[in-house]
Amino acid sequence: MNAISPPQLEPPLSASPLIQSFSDEHWCELIGLVGSDIAQSLSSALERVTVLATTGKIDRAGLRALREEIEQARRVGMIGQQLARFASGRIRQSPEQITLTQVVRDVLVQRSREATARGIEIRQALRPAEVIVDPTLLHTLVQSIMDWALEHAREQIEFRIDLKPWPAHARMFCQFLLKASGEAPADVVARHDATPSLDSMTWRLVQQIGKTLGLVIDRVDTAETSSVLIEFPRTVQEKIEGMAITEVEPDFGVSENSKPLAGSQVLVLAARRELRAEVREAIRHMGLVLDFVSTVDEAEEYCRDTLPHAIIYESASASQRFERLRSDLSHDFPNFAFIEIAAEGSRFALSGENGRRHAVIGRDTVTQSLPSALIYELSRSM
Known about the structure:
The protein is an alpha/beta fold. The chain folds into two domains: 1-258, Histidine kinase-like ATPase, C-terminal domain (Heat Shock Protein 90), CATH 3.30.565.10; 265-381, Rossmann fold (3-Layer(aba) Sandwich). It is built from nine helices and 14 strands. The chain has helices spanning 24-55, 60-88, 100-117, 135-152, 201-213, 273-282, 296-305, 320-332, 366-381; strands spanning 96-99, 121-126, 130-133, 156-163, 170-177, 216-221, 225-232, 235-236, 265-269, 289-293, 310-314, 337-342, 348-349, 359-362. The strands form three sheets. The protein has a six-stranded mixed beta sheet. Strands 2-4-5-7-6 form a five-stranded mixed beta sheet, with helices on one face. Helix 8 (320-332) links the parallel strand 11 (310-314) and strand 12 (337-342).
């Protein structure tokens, strides 16, 4: 297996900071890329549907490919919506002192099963680091970097956090292999001429979040690896001679757009369409990523590919097979969030009460109770 080299104390000379201002031309280019990426994924999906309609047959590999193509189109559409918010200039931040190391570690744990399913090993060397940033945007940034790495990585992804000696800035480094052991070497890609595949919509989102947070991002692509180095100018250090390197301003207010759980992925297991619609409407304002399945089989398959942050399920789905799924997830992730929707009534009980392992809300109070239950359960598990 190819070794991944540690980050240098100074960024490589071949890497240059992103331009911290995006023109109208840039946004026009992004709009074109969104349309192109969605059209490409849906065209491939349409070809498979046409074959299915003609032959009446589709094998397991084809079905998985169809699902991936539709999911890719959905993902690009969601990124387009996120980029539209950034382009509007209406995003207001609420910077807080955040433990960068913990945020990265939590994301790596949450995405470990997905990486393992793809045959990818995650390595980490995370030094303690405190930074001052908007917590929601930071979490979205780390998740987006992981999304981007998983799109292209072969065999191995490495995350590192270190501290630049002076100025005392925290730095997050992500590097991954572009080819597996034994593969023929690819052509070397220059920094100024990165391959279109690496410059995906996910990478564009990483760029935009970094710009919004005021971070410095450097990316270097070679024949075998791609790496990104992100520097946090607002890093909290221990006090030196009675003066702190960085202080948190006392007048930071709570942003009206603050969604502390935004970007968290929630799987909803519900066979009835009306319940799905009710759940969607109840938590629409929270900025969560919702996926819906109808059966326990679909939930198991979903969790093999992607581990959500929480599972909401109707009580009718609580079969022995579901209990096995819950037991498996709870064994690997003891604080994994489960919320059961009872068939009727106005019951409201959180996990931990009287030894309860999951939250329960009544069907009659989904609109009022589900947001509160999600905030509690997700905050407890993160």
